[in-house]
Every structure is written in C-alpha cells, then in structure tokens.
C-alpha cells in the first residue's frame, strides 16, 4: 500500500455499492467490518438516493448518499471501499482519490491495464494509501503455507500444479451475470478466478519467469437459465498455462468455466523433501474455507496441517466462522487496519496496493498476448 502517516482508530468507512437487496458488500464487507476491531461503518452510497436510504436503514449506517461523489466528499469518511462491478471501478474510484481519501477496491482494479494504471498514477500523485481486494493473500492458511515453503518444509520446490473452476463462465448465465459474457467488461475467467489464483500462487512461491498459455472460448453461445434465450459469449472458458517460476520450479495452472462434479479446486506443491496440498470448500476458493495437508520424508500419506493460532492475529472469533465468505475479507481488514495505524509488524506484508494491482494486470495482459500469438512470454523482462 502507498505509505502515509499513521491514522487513529476508529477508521470511518464508506462503502460504495452496498445495497438493501444484497450482493458482495452485504455478504462479505458488512460482516467483516463488524467482526474487525478499529473500524466504523459510517457511510454508504448506492445507485440512487432512494436505494441508499433503504440500505442505510437495513444495515444501520448513519450516512446514506445517492452517489459515490457525495460519499467521497464527506468529511466523516476516512476509507472508501468500492465493491461494485469492475466496469464501473474507474468512474467510482477516481472521485475518492481526487478527494484525498484512502481507497480499498475489489479486484480487478480496472476493466483493463490502462484503467488500472490511471488509478495507480492518480493515487501516487495524491499520496493516498490504497489497497486492492486480493483477499487470498490475507487468509491465515495461505500465510502459513508461504512460511512453510520459505522455512524449507518440502525442501527445494520442484513443481506446483493448480486446478480450478470459475462457475459463471459455464454453459448458462443469468441476468446478474450477463455482463460477464463480454470480454471488454474486464470481468473474465482470466481476470477474476485466474487472477485471484495466480496472485496467491506467486505470493507463496514467487513470481513467474516465463509462461506459455492457451486461452480458449469453447462455448461462444450460452443459454439463459430461465428463459432459454441464447446469447453470444466473447469471454474465455478455458485457460491452461505452464511456466517456470523465478526459482526454477515448474508450474501448471488450468482453470475452466462452469462447475465440475469432480475436482473443484486442488493446489499441490512438490519438493525434494515433501509435498503440500491446499483444498477448498468450493470452486471460488479465495472466498472459501481452506485446508492444508502435507507429508515429508517417509510419511505414508498426507495429514491435515492445523494453522497456528498466531496467524489469526486478533480475529480469533473467525476461527469458528471460516466457512463464511467474509472470513478472508475480515483478515484483509485486520491487515489494512494495522497498515493504516502504523502497527503492522516489521516483517509483515499487508494488503497489496494499486501499484501491485497494475503489476498483476500487466502479467495477465502478457499471458493473454502470449496465448493469442502462440508463443512464450518472458514476464520478468516485461516488468510483469
């Protein structure tokens, strides 16, 4: 995150996109903030003044604004949290940055690399602290996994493989997810499920040196779940990528649109002295409960690895709520709070900022270009 002077608690939060009818803000951010010390949910904005009032009454939020611009101008908001669909990020994040407010945006940051760069540049010019919602990085099991690898639990890492699904990019669609059919929306299998996943993989094992990829749209027409109407789909539904990490380890990732009756998510790390496996409760694994398994040396099979209590930070209440989508978001808020208040440990990394988001956007663009051209991409040389 961008450096700034420490802020005193409570941190007053304004959420852009909190609706009385539900959605990700209501499912994850509201309970995460309620279960995290140091925050006050002070304001919200919605698509109209009427809908904002309804949301304010439902969630007991004191200030309800009919636009993100009004929320950004409020002197009672310290941190603006943007939870709307990615095609609207640029227009809704820009006013908050221009007002000098700290911003936490859902991932992807922009609909494309250019939008992400514009927002990161503006944040830098304004000198404001920023964060992007790649919440898998904040999950205690993955922070423990990273330390296990760094401490040599499996020896030298030889390879890693990750298999996953992205439900909304399957054979059918509904009204809420129709925008996902258009590749120009920026909400694709590559940017969302794959983006969250490759960011987590590199957080644990280091960045890629080079990659080769196949990105295919094998279902160019999909069917509405209720009406049966057929719609064109320009977004991909298959991503297969192999590459070398900077450590020299071989990596393979395969993400598929839709759902599976077989393997929903599986991540394996193989080393000279052992193996580690990550499993999740459901396909959208970065918002699911994660479990770690490992084996070393002459062990006969994998055993579950409990996550030490220290990785829960101050959020011990979430150990019994790890199946909730808000759990990893709550851990993200705890890290963010410690960054804002200047109490993050000297050896701790916090929530990734807009500059990190640009690097990840750039990486995904390079992968798409390499797949389109049918050639290998050397990521390190391109600053990805």
Which features would summarize this protein structure in a list?
alpha/beta; 9 helices; 384 residues; six-stranded parallel sheet; nine-stranded mixed sheet
Structure overview:
It is built from nine helices and 18 strands. The chain has helices spanning 24-34, 49-59, 68-73, 89-98, 113-126, 140-150, 190-205, 326-340, 354-373; strands at 11-16, 39-45, 63-65, 79-82, 102-106, 130-133, 157-166, 172-173, 208-216, 221-224, 230-232, 238-245, 250-257, 265-271, 274-280, 290-296, 303-304, 377-378. The strands form three sheets. The protein has a nine-stranded mixed β-sheet with strand order 17-16-15-14-7-13-12-9-18. A six-stranded parallel β-sheet has the order 3-2-1-4-5-6, with helices on both faces. Strands 8-10-11 form a three-stranded mixed β-sheet, with no helix packed on it. The model has no long low-confidence stretch (mean pLDDT 94).
Number of strands: 18
- 3D shape: globular
Question: Structural class of the secondary elements?
Answer: alpha/beta
Order of helices and strands: EHEHEHEHEHEHEEHEEEEEEEEEHHE
Taking all Cα atoms into account, the compactness measure Rg is 21 Å
Low-confidence stretches: none
What's this entry about, in short?
The chain has 384 residues and is an alpha/beta fold. 30% of the residues lie in helices and 26% in strands. A nine-stranded mixed beta sheet has the order 17-16-15-14-7-13-12-9-18. A six-stranded parallel beta sheet has the order 3-2-1-4-5-6, sandwiched between helices. It has a three-stranded mixed beta sheet with strand order 8-10-11, with no helix packed on it.
